[in-house]
Amino acid sequence: MQHITGIARNQMVFTSLEDSISEDNSVRFVDAFVENIDLKALGFELQTLKTEGRPSFNTETFLKIYLYGYLNGLRSSRKLEKECARNIELQWLLFGLAPNYHSISDFRKNNPSGLKKLFKVFVSFLKDADLIAGETIAIDGTKSRAHNSKKANFNQKKIDKHLAYIEEKTQQYLDELAQNDEKENSMTITKIQEKIERLKKNKLGYEVLEEKLKASGEPQISTTDEDSRALLVQGQVVEVSYNIQAAVDAQYNLVVATHTINRNDRNALSAIAIEAKENLGIETFTALVDKGYHNGREITQCKEQNIITIVAHPDQGKSNENGTQPDYFVSKFIYNTDDDTYTCPANQVLKTTGRWHKKTRDRDSYDFKKYRTPACKECPVKSLCTSRTGGREIDRSQYADAVAENNQRYQANAQLYRKRQEINEHIFGTIKRQWGYNHTNLTGLEKVNGEHSLIMLVYNIKRAINILGVPELIAKLKNWKSPYKAKTCFVFRQTCFAFILAPLENTLSIAA
After folding, report:
1. pLDDT lower than 70: segments of the chain
2. CA distances for 475 relative to 462, 470, 471, 479, 484, angstroms
3. CA dihedral sign of residues 131, 249, 246, 123
4. Bridge partners, residue 255, by sequence
5. Which one of 19, 76, 348, 400 has the minimum C-beta count within 10 Å?
6. Can you give the pTM of this predicted structure?
C-alpha cells in the first residue's frame, strides 16, 4: 500500500463534541466569557419565553455566534448560519443549535449599546488580570468605509452642479422640441417630452436634498447612511466613512477605549482620553497622540482631567520670499508670563491691550489676544518677519498655556513619543489588512459604534489568549470579581445535570 488511507465513511465512531475541542481552543474562552457575564445588566435585549409559538433562542447564543465569527473572520449572518450547521466548534459552542441568518443579523443591529458596554467590561477584566498598566496610552484613529457610496454623498457645491446640468439639458431638450414642432415629428416629440419630465423629477429630488442639507446645518449629507461623512483618508483621498478612535495601553498593546465618530481627529482628543481614564478607573496617565489631534481646547480639557498629553505640534508653516522666514516663526518669540508680553528675535517687546477677540473656524471657536509693537515700523529685519504693512502681530489664545506645556513635553520626550506608532499603528493594520474589517455593512452611527466595539473586543480577546493562553485566562475569569459577572448560570446548569444524572446513578447502583 503506497498511500495513507482514511476511515471508512460508513464506519460508526463513538465520540462526543467535548472530545473534539482541545483545552487550549479559543472557543472555550468564548463560552466561559459569555457564561460569566450578566447580559441583562449590560442592557442586551433578552429573549423572553412566549406562551404561543416556537420558543426563542437565548441571547447568549447569538453573542457566542458573533464573538466566534469575528474571531475567525466571519461577519456575514448568512455565512454564520451555514457555519452553525457544519462547523464542529460552533456545534460545541451552541450545543448543536443553528439559528437562521435573520435572527443572527437582528441581534447585532438591536444591541449596539450592549456591545459597547461589553467591551468596557472586558477592559476592566484585563485591568484586574494585570494585563493593562494604565500608565502610557497611545491614541489614534482610522477610517472605516461606510455603507454609502460617494455618489450618494452631497454638499452644496455638488447639488448646484447637478441642478446646473439639469437646467442646461432641459433648455437643450426644449430647443429640440421647438424644432420638431415645426417638422411635426410626433414620435420624437414624445421622447423629448419624456426626457424633460424625467429631468423635472430629478430636479425636484435635488431641491428636496438641498432643503435637508440647509436644515441639518451640516456641510454635507448622505442619502444611504445619513450619519456617514466624506472624510479625508490620506493625502487628497476622500472616502465616505467613519472614524474609529482607539486608545491603546503600552504594556501589552491592548485597546482600553474605543468609539466611532463621523468627523476628523481635530476635535476628538479629549473624548477618547477621558473614556480611557473612566474605563480603567485611574487618576492620570500619559497620552501619546499625533499632530492631527493638536487642538488647544482639547489639550486644555485633558489637562483639566489630569491627563498628561504629549501631542506632536503641527509644522510651523512654509516660508517664502515675501513671507515669514523660519527664524521668525511664532515659536521663536518668547512669552513673558510676568508682564504678559512677547519678546521677538530682534529683542523688541510686543504688548497687548488686554482685549479678547473671538475666532471661529471648522466648528471650533476660541478667544485670543493680539500683541504688537510700534518698533516694527523701523525694524531692519521686518521683511524677514512679516509682510504686513502695520508690522508683526501675534495671537495668543485662551488655551495657550496648556498648549505651551504640551509642546515642551513633546520636545523633552522625543524618545517616548516615538513609541506611539509601535503601540497602536499595528492594531489598525491587523484589523483592516489582516482581518479585512476595513468597512461596515451597518448604517447609522450608533449601530456602527456597536460593531466597531465588537471588533475591538475580539482583538483584545485574541491578544489576551496569545499572552496567557486559554486555560489560564479562563482561570482568571472564574476568579474575577465584577458587578457584571453572572452568579447563577453555573449553579443552574449543575442543578439541571443533577436531576438528569440522579436517576441514572440509581439505575446503575441497582444493576450492580
Report:
1. 1, 48-51, 180-187, 316-322, 362-363, 487-512
2. 16, 9, 6, 6, 17
3. positive
4. 248
5. 19
6. 0.87
